[in-house]
Amino acid sequence: MxxxxxxxxxxxxYYRPEHTTCLHCGEVLRRCYPLWRKxxxxxxxxxLVVSMGYHxxxxxxxxxxxxxxxxxxxxxxVGGSSxxxxxxxxxxxxxFWQRWTVAPIHEVLTQERHLPISRRQGLNLIGVFLVxxxxxxxxxxxxxxxxxxxxxxxxxxxxxxPEKGHTxxxxxxxxxxxxxLHEVALxxxxxxxxxxxxxxxxxxxxxxxxGIVSDDEHALVIAVAKPFHGVPHQTCQIHCLREAARPxxxxxxxxxxxxxxxxxGPFDTAGRTLQEQLAAEDPRSEVLRxxxxxIRSTLTEARSPPFALGGLRxxxxxxxxxxxxxRSRQKGGTRSWINCSGWSHSANPWxxxxxxxxxxxxxWWNWTGVSTHQRLRVSRARPASRFxxxxxSS
Length: 394
Description:
Blueprint: E1 11-15, E2 30-42, E3 45-55, H1 71-74, H2 85-96, H3 102-112, H4 119-134, H5 137-143, H6 145-151, E4 153-160, E5 168-174, E6 180-186, H7 191-203, E7 209-214, H8 218-225, E8 233-235, H9 237-244, H10 246-277, H11 283-299, H12 310-330, H13 352-359, E9 374-378, E10 389-393
Parallel strand pairs: 1-3, 4-7, 7-8
Antiparallel strand pairs: 2-3, 4-5, 5-6, 9-10
Helix pairs in contact: 2-4, 7-8, 10-11, 10-12, 11-12
């Protein structure tokens, strides 16, 4: 059941016209009645905004029936909304410049600023911000028109294609100032349609085109070649790198699959054995449990080719775990009573550093050789230092 809001402690704001005299006769305006009153949510809290109306007291004045109002009160919010423009702008800044999602935005507004707003209302205000951002777009284009006429345009062509059989959104963006010159939603994307609906409006702007960047879509390449003959057309570098790294990415995926298959079986067997032989109150259990969770999370390391390869990241993290356990053993601990050296020969190929580190019986394979009174603190601040562990005597 919806409850009424408590407005007893809500502050009031009165707004009056910016001019105090009549625009026709110069007589001092007189207050007549409140034009509107509305509860508006500001960044500082809720307030009752009252816009007062004023009129000329002279009956013989040319405009006695004209009621003057405050323009500042009208600019506080958009029509039909109970949230101030300052909240709409702040939410848009957090969402599109700080890359926040709806959940942290709602948490800051409700818990830190104590504002009455729901997640759905915050999502709606993001849409309002996008509309407001689009409204003065033609003014931004007009402001840079002199630069476009003098220096020409460098544009990027890209498309957002959710699924086959659905409309794709094609966007033409200017690269120097980041302005969107044209966008169109197309169901069919042959080169004739692209040339007519996407490129002709850009050519009709009348600016000199100096360069084009796009992906390697065959229809788009053909569509650009005819209306912009002689203009340099470059394929997007990230697409080139992704295609060039495809063989490496496929080999890395196969290597990571073999690595996970080789480790998970013996690792689960060793974990069950330790769980059966170690009591719950044993101080070694917490340390071993931490290492076990790190190994499990390592095997699910994500990949983002062409630069971040999952198999290489797994090997790098396992080496850090090995170094951490080696430091723990050097500080003094119990003798390792489970030998897991066979793991290193289960997968092919294995990195030489892992094979050599396991040959001596140390490393992260003998992960039970830690001190009985040691606790592990693992920093997860950055992926580069994800498994750098420090032992602290309790």
